[in-house]
């Protein structure tokens, strides 16, 4: 499993630090009028563009720095743009000066922790420049921001770890480590026991792998409303007998991104000691090929009793989620949420930066939209469009895991899952879990999506 990284933290409140002046273009003239470094900044061509940085000279070296916050349009186009300036700062302690709105201060604080993320497990000999340490801006809930950053880093580490070191057993170990750190309880059903415990579709998808499939079941908290998170944990997806082309497998180590994201969100919840009862269910499998692999046109009987015709073995994520969602519904909860790297159709619809989500509950939708804005975690609501329900009904069985409809793949997958969630307050996220290119505070690689939006939504959704 991944080794635990130190928890991200801000520079100590009492540490000696240098000022980092944050400036917007419209405030630059006033700053220059009163600054002894006006000539220096003009010579450097500083215009307060988003993430622009100029170091200020002093008698003993560097006296401070100025960083640009950019225009409102620039900030809308690039989240965490200040991270570019933070990354260019010399090592040492810094504090932010300048007028920031509460939202700008929160974004700057989160950027101040996330910009330092590096996944260097496989490059131990490559020394990275020690990052600058930045104090939390005044008025920011530093503990909450640090918890969000730590949860995001856990998610990134899990997704970035290649399948050779992140199979079902290693994903279980990561969940056990998280449970131990927060006093949570955990139970795991493995291999043939999945059949005796009536989790047949999890077993069917994972049985071809020598790394046994399993269901991870974590519980935390004894009082308060009940929240259940279900995360897709397909640790690698070859596509099964409907094998993917080689190019289609290159990112399949991230097919457990839903599991990684719910574990990151669980860490945030437990670290902040939110007054709720949390359950996390992760069906952890590998979808590989062997003599006993799931075959096209097989018909599976799910935990719920619904039969499913397997028209594509590469549409396996919804199969393992279905049994887990049924179990979650049987166990009772106030809110049920699933997260999965489920469909390429979602990426075609909204691209890699937006996390599509589905719910029939208007109050949940309103809460998560507000949480997304506050957490700088963009999402987009998609419909449970019931006119497409007949598409997932093949006739020979109750349901089809991969309809030949050819359209609306994310919607039909969500409708499939809803058949098993059986809960009025259900929400499903069809995430990508990957940043395709380096961006401020978001390096290329694994990425959490939707977790901060949900964290911000929980007080309203659960009436905490």
UniProtKB/TrEMBL annotation:
Residues 312-319 form the Cytosol aminopeptidase domain. Keywords: Aminopeptidase, Hydrolase, Manganese, Protease. Transmembrane segments: none annotated. Gene3D superfamilies: Leucine Aminopeptidase, subunit E, domain 1 (3.40.220.10), Zn peptidases (3.40.630.10). The keyword Lipid metabolism does not apply. The keyword Manganese applies. GO terms for molecular function: aminopeptidase activity. Belongs to the peptidase M17 family. This is Leucyl aminopeptidase family protein. It comes from Pseudogemmobacter lacusdianii. The lineage of its organism: Bacteria, Pseudomonadati, Pseudomonadota, Alphaproteobacteria, Rhodobacterales.
